Amino acid sequence: MLEHFQYPFDSTRLYRSRKDIREKLTQRSQRQIKLYILSGSTVGELKEFIDLFLLNFGIRAEVKVGDYNAFYEEAMFGEQIASFDPDWIYVHTSIRNVRRFPSIEDGQQDVDALVLSETERLSQIAEKLSGRGCKIILNNFERPVFRSIGNLSSIHTAGSNRFVRLLNDVIEGLVTANENVFLNDIDYLSSVVGLDNWHDWNYWSSFKYAMAPTAMPWIGSSIASIIAAGDGAAKKALLCDLDNTLWGGTIGDEGVEKIALGPDTAKGEIFSEVQSYIKDLKSRGIAIAVNSKNNEENARSGFSHDSTELQCEDFAEFLANWNPKSQNVSEIEKSLNISADSFVFLDDSPAEIAEVEMHFPEILAFSYKKTPIELITQIDRIGVFEQISISAEDTERQSFFQSNQKRERLRQSSGSLQEYLQSLNMTAQVSEVNTDTKDRCVQLVNKTNQFNPMTRRIDGSYLHSCMEREDCLTLNVRLQDRYGNNGITSVLIVSFKEHVAEIDVWVMSCRVFNRELELAIFDVLVDQCRQRGITRIEAAYKPSAKNGYVKNLYGDLGFDCVSEIEDTKHYCFEINESWQPRNKMIEISYGKP
Amino acid sequence: MANLEELRTIFRDIIGDQTIELTIEDSTETIKAWDSLVSINIMTALSQEYDLTLGIDDFEKFNRVKDIVQVLENNKT
């Protein structure tokens, strides 16, 4: 990772190096978004910080800033947002936008009314803008600069600190109620920075900065991680070294009894914290892997320590050998089927990090100078693993990777691919998307880059409208095999017009590639089309940096390529009497859920 | 006397133009790219660089090189 982004953030250093950072990161960026910032106070260099932190996630942004403190007018009555047509909108408000705090004589009812009137504008904005189909980021409120009634401010009915808590409850409600609205928790950020560093009277009164410019990188980083998470560009896997990263000391030399881990030593306690945090990441769906220079047996023995928080089985891949670590990174890419630009790497050795970064400059790598907890501080504060929601699939994902390990080993021992696929005893169910599976389907579409012929992205309201339409079919596909349940692994949205079906969205999780699942799904689609009197299926493929895997998808399924416009290939499949289902490996069924 | 060369380096980074020449006579009037955002960023950068303690009166003094130099001088004492 570029040193400019190191934590704690240095706003001047970041700002002065912005040209340099852009030069280094722009050509590596994979995505582009448009962001409109609505101003509740001076935005100033915050615009740059958001831009730079987005580049760190591989996202190029076109950013437009609205007029000073015109957030309400522009959102509700202006044309500026409509004509810019952003993907994301950030509403830059803060406690400086609160017009009136409770007076000491106000009773509960007065305070409740005031809470409503002070959040009214944001409620209206959230409703109006989310209807446009773009994603909105709202700030909550920081703690007040002063609390003239002291500690009582948190308890007294009219206390300003209590008031902020009530305002933030309303904001929480707005965010929870609307899947297109996201929270930027400046209450938390201002705590991290420290209220005395956040609030600056000179900058406020002279230039109307709601927070000191030195605090702005924290906001920039947070906004970038929310956007990355919302667009499926947050990091997905954590690779760790072992010695002096997950425990103190070298296991090869000292043996499991002597490594520092657990409550017996101060150092050991810190390494336990590191392991504990990583375990938390794993439990909500981040894949973790070991990348260590060690003899494998020794490496594994570290996890038999009494105080270990992590187990060998927690890791989706465990590579302990004497190969260059960059070589292991390539192996891990293949084994997890996730590309290195979604990796985070932790190692106590800057030399190892340099070696990995030389081959994989897109990896975000972190080391530490004094205390291993710095590893966690960095990944936590930079929000590399930010998530906008946690689904049941996320919490179950790790077991999929586990099962994948077993499947891969089986594949290597089977005679042929056909034998191997047969031995998996795969079953699949195709059914219509419903309210229970909706979120997971949106998530899958937005995260999938490889099996995504048009690199389609959707949001909840789009999927909902497709589900309601008579002329549209929204399908999700579940896959099981002898090692377990893979959950929902494919989403297909097809629209019908007269005798033609058009494939709008088709994605498949990389975890289930090379299973011939696309053959099975296509068989079901053709059957459904025949039942509806459809005679032709249309589809399209537009190459991207990541979807080469499906370059020949439609060709292989029997489509003809009828035209190529700009770089998009248009395909056509005529359904006739002679059509035969091709799937032989998966027992697939279709049913209404 | 504050080092004009150091000021020039910081100035060039803030404006994003390494070719800008800075003289003691320059100000927001003489350099086109020098707007209020630049003034604020120069102030923030110099505050950190020279560990300045600035008051509300100093905040208006970052529009002219002459005034900036004066602020830096005042802070040394």
Would you kindly provide a written description of the structure presented here, covering whatever features stand out?
The complex is a heterodimer of chains A (593) and B (77). Chain A is α/β, with parallel strands linked by helices. In chain A, α3 (46-56) packs across α11 and α6 packs parallel to α7 (160-177). In chain B, α1 packs across α2 (36-49). Classes of the chains: A alpha/beta (593), B mainly alpha (77).
What's the arrangement of secondary structure elements?
The complex is a heterodimer of chains A (593) and B (77).
Chain A: H1 11-16, H2 18-25, E1 31-39, H3 46-56, E2 59-65, H4 71-76, H5 80-84, E3 88-92, H6 108-130, E4 135-139, H7 160-177, E5 181-184, H8 186-193, H9 195-198, H10 201-207, H11 216-230, E6 237-240, H12 251-254, H13 266-283, E7 287-293, H14 296-301, E8 317-321, H15 325-336, E9 343-346, H16 350-359, E10 364-366, H17 373-381, H18 392-413, H19 417-423, E11 426-432, H20 438-447, H21 460-468, E12 472-481, E13 484-497, E14 500-508, H22 517-531, E15 536-541, H23 553-557, E16 560-565, E17 568-574, E18 586-590
Parallel strand pairs in A: 1-2, 1-3, 3-4, 4-5, 6-7, 6-9, 7-8, 9-10, 11-18, 14-15
Antiparallel strand pairs in A: 11-12, 12-13, 13-14, 15-17, 16-17
Chain B: H1 4-15, H2 36-49, H3 65-76
Helix pairs in contact in B: 1-2
